[in-house]
Amino acid sequence: MEGRIKRLERAWDYPAHPGPDPETVAHWASLWTALGIEDSRAMAVALEFLEYCQATGQAPTFGYGPGGLMRWCEGNIGGGEDDDE
Q1: Is residue 55 assigned to a domain?
Q2: What distance in Å separates the CA atoms of residue 19 and residue 34, rounded to the nearest whole number?
Q3: How far is Cα 49 from Cα 33, in angstroms, rounded to an integer?
Q4: How many domains does the chain contain in total?
């Protein structure tokens, strides 16, 4: 999981696109940790979601609209090919 987080962080184009700030990541990760998901997995999922929002130019929201967490989860949650890295 740590490798996955580090890859996401390296993918940001500094300084033009520095990625989400730590407070924003912690806020979105808290949604998963509140459900009992381990911190490292919650952090990785939050980073992926925020990276998606940044790449598509959408503001992150909770709902099913553009930039919506619920919409993103439907297509992205369920384990990736590199979950164990």
Answers
A1: yes
A2: 24
A3: 15
A4: 1
Task: Please give the span between the terminal C-alpha atoms of the chain, in angstroms, as a whole number.
Answer: 5
In a domain, 85, yes or no: no
**pLDDT of 28-40, one tens digit each?**
999 989 989 999 9
Contact 83, 1 (CB under 8 A): yes
Structural domain harbouring 15 = 2-76
| 82 within some domain | no
Return the bridge partners of 61, or none: 68
Distances (CA, A) of 37 to 31, 41, 57: 9, 7, 28
DSSP helix/strand/coil, 31: helix
Structure-block tokens of residue 37: 């998901």
Which structure tokens are listed for 23?
């407070």
Whether the model clears a pTM of 0.90, i.e. scores above it, the answer is no
